[in-house]
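User: Second chain of the day. Same drill as before.
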Amino acid sequence: MTGRLARIAAVWLGLVCLAGSGLDRIVAPELGWVRPAAAASRIKDIASLQAARDNQLIGYGLVVGLQGTGDGLRNSPFTEQSLRAMLQNLGISTEGGASRANNVAAVIVTANLPPFASLGSRIDVSVSSLGDATSLRGGTLVMTSMSGADGQIYAVAQGSVVVSAVTAQGDAASLQQGVATAGRLPGGAIIEREIPATFKQVGGLVYQLRNPDFSTAVGMADVINAYSQARYGAAIAEARDSTTIAVRKPEKADLARLTAEIEGLIVETDTPARVVINERTGTIVIGNDVRVSRVAVTHGTLTVQITETPTIVQPAPFSNGVTAVEPLTDITAGVEGGQVAIIDGPDLRTLVAGLNSIGVKPDGIIAILQGIKSAGALHAELVLQ
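Assistant: Same format as last time:
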């Protein structure tokens, strides 16, 4: 039994070395199977540590220094209240005075606190207008505290807002590219509180696949076990379900070094056959494993053309009539296409060639794929967005 485990470990190590080599097929006689080569990826690219997760932060602040593109204080009373509170904290009294400044905008500030972030490090921040401001270009975010879901303050943001949108307006026309009421502060927040780290205290690692799949989870556990058998002399990984892979820490291993070694291992990923369709944009994404049984497809497009040719009718001479316009509408309808094509998709290239042979646009291909799915000939999941 020990010799067979050693041979299996050697085979898996050989598969790791063969990954990405461009071979069409991988043969493993010791395991008793032959399978096509799949896409090979590093573990760090397909899975993440359960303990290493981001935390979302949010805050409310003011952006000042705008060129008349800020909130209208009458329409956004919370902006005026925030401005008065800020000035009072700075020792400036605003009692009895009405502020009409239009270079201030109230914003919501959001950021993601990365795992293991240390005190004093910087993170990127996004700001979005909360009132009726027309642009945040050229503004500066005033010191804003950012808290987590527990209500504790973890970061403080301040700095110049970077807006990539362009807005131009004249008397009779306007031009806008992008959204000018949202921007970013690269490195604009400083971390003031650390999240308690328990990485070294745990007895193992738990990986979560970004794309859940039982084949990928089992393959990842087998690759980790093959590596640990060669290095530590014991299997340490177990696939709990299609998403979670638990890794036990060997007694003589350092957890940080073990994590770095596991992240570099190569795993063959597998995904279910899926066709993703976005009817709004006409985007069609067909997975490599999609198969179609032989079907005959015809597609015709109904074209309706409406032509308006109004005629002018003149009144009789020396009458009290007026010139009138008599409408005349001509409607014609026709069907284009209608040719029959046989589609048989044993692989992705043949399927795409069969769809292109019909000569229809993306919206027609979407209708054809939906019809093939209804006929039971599309052996894949159809996802409509």
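The two ends are 51 Å apart (CA to CA).

User: Great, on to the next one.
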